[in-house]
Amino acid sequence: MFVLGISAFFHDSAACLVKDGKIVAACQEERFTRKKHDASFPSQAITACLKIGGITKSDIAMVAFYDKPFLKFERILETYLHYAPWGWISFLKAMPVWMKKKLWIKSLIQDELEYYNEIVFSEHHLSHAAAAFYPSPYENASILTMDGVGEWATASYGLGRANDLKILADIEFPHSLGMLYSAFTHYTGFRVNSGEYKVMGLAPYGEPKYVDDIKENLIDIKPDGSFFLNMDYFNYGSGLTMTSEKFHDLFDGPPRKPETELRQKDMDLAHSVQDVTEEIVLKSAKHIKKETRTKYLCLAGGVALNCVANGKLLRSNIFDDIWIQSAAGDAGGALGAALAAWHGYLDKPRKSDGKNDNMKGCFIGPQFSSDQIQFFLDKAGAKYSKLSDGKLMETVAGFLESGKVIGWFQGRMEFGPRALGNRSIIGDARSPKMQETMNLKIKFRESFRPFAPSVLEEHVSDWFQLDRDSPYMLLVADVAKSIQKESEGENSAIGLEKLCLYRSEIPAVTHVDFSARIQTVHYETNPRYHALINTFYKKTGCPVVVNTSFNVRGEPIVCTPEEAYSCFMHTEMDILVLENFILLKDAQNVLTLERNYKNEFQLD
């Protein structure tokens, strides 16, 4: 029996196909339309899921949508009424799309899919909770979800036992930890719903100077982790921005204009809101533990992508272990809705072994055959070689050792915001220049943003202060004391000056506070990526490589060989690996290749 899950119309639309309770495929619409955080109906993602599953629309037995549009519409109307007449302009902008599309999801699904079987609607935070609990390794666990807002809920906690999942309590709009963090994202000059991780990355460059101001004016935090926002400081309830003039007065000026120079003030604000976020997460976890008495905690919702808070939660030992849904944001809502329909609505049983999750390493997107890749390369006029697995690993590991930057494209595309070794750009973590090179010449992004390490799971504790797996790059921990280094100027450096300090034997993945956002690589879920890093380890004694997503700033992660090739040709990447095909930048006739590529594939 096939269940199709759908999320759409707010950000990161996605589709997920579940067969008899097992995840077959999940894809984000942005990977096909090439519009980052695309919120449109996920037509192409649905098509891809059906193709991967080897089925047609007529084989779908049930469609599950990730929230309840009428309940969300009720919240929006009540909010505008509460703030009337100040929200009039925002109201006029919002209503047309609601009246044309967002209220008529059932009809839209029927029309788009020519589908007339059962359609069910899950509440937003129930979808997050289902995405957190049902694929987790645990038979029984507590669940914490936090984001901007669903219908009314902005945070919730619940309890999962076998196939049963219950939400026990929630916090309702406008009081929202996600909105608080997004307000500071906006104020520090980044884009809401995509720049929050930049605030998290900027935080270690600052000091928590504004924590008291935030807690005395913006938010009242209770001992159980619940909270109330002072809405005088925010504008998202009725306006078109996140923050009000009162917010600007409190922090001595208007928001930073995007792309302008970062100030120490921005770094201090980032650090401060990060500290407040961590306090709320830890207090919430303690309360949940007290109420539920379970050993394990599962997390989802956009706030669960805050891997610094996740790391501190893990180290707090409030729970024996935690598991975080890799697609914790709205994209994962499609997966949660499908699983909630199967286990909850249909009351189907669920099995867990206590150790392994059911996400298949998150490699549940499209895959491309060698024949497809070779056909494309020949059409493009590319110069390439095809190597055996053993020769490929030796060759690529040698290029890594020599400081080359490599586009690594293999297997099924990842689901969620992180590249985990199938659509990745990789480099030597030991190189002092690798972070700067990747940021400025490959990714075209801000220099302060750190890169993540991919480490062989069997060596993680030798190189990082982490004693368990982190397969989805959602835990931050410090590099091991044995490889840390004290730099000259440590005490005098402030702000972005800290970028110039080399803090460990793997400086390319060591943040300014000695931390790293760790991905453990497992042979069971990604044998080829594991084999590459293991070959590099045998050559160098280092089981760690830099891993960043295969894209440039402002674009989604690549999906197809064509997109990988385009990214390779339009950056200063040195090597491109497409399955067993390897391309050297120096060997390409760039003008001929670009002309052929544009003619064949109609690139701009």
Verbal overview:
This protein has 604 residues and is of the alpha/beta class. The chain has a domain at 370-601: DHBP synthase (Alpha-Beta Complex), CATH 3.90.870.20. It contains 20 helices and 21 strands. The strands form four sheets. It has a nine-stranded mixed sheet with strand order 13-21-20-14-15-19-16-18-17, with helices on both faces. Strand 2 and strand 3 form a beta hairpin. Helix 7 packs antiparallel against helix 11. The longest helix is centred in the middle third of the chain and has 29 residues, at 264-292. It starts with a strand and ends with a helix.
Give a concise summary:
Helices cover about 35% and strands about 20% of the residues. It is of the alpha/beta class and about 600 residues long.
Beta-strand residue percentage: 15-25%
For this structure, what is the CATH class of one domain?
Alpha Beta
What do the pLDDT scores average to? 93
- Largest beta sheet: strand ordering: 13-21-20-14-15-19-16-18-17
CATH topology of one domain: DHBP synthase
Unreliable segments of 5+ consecutive residues:
597-604
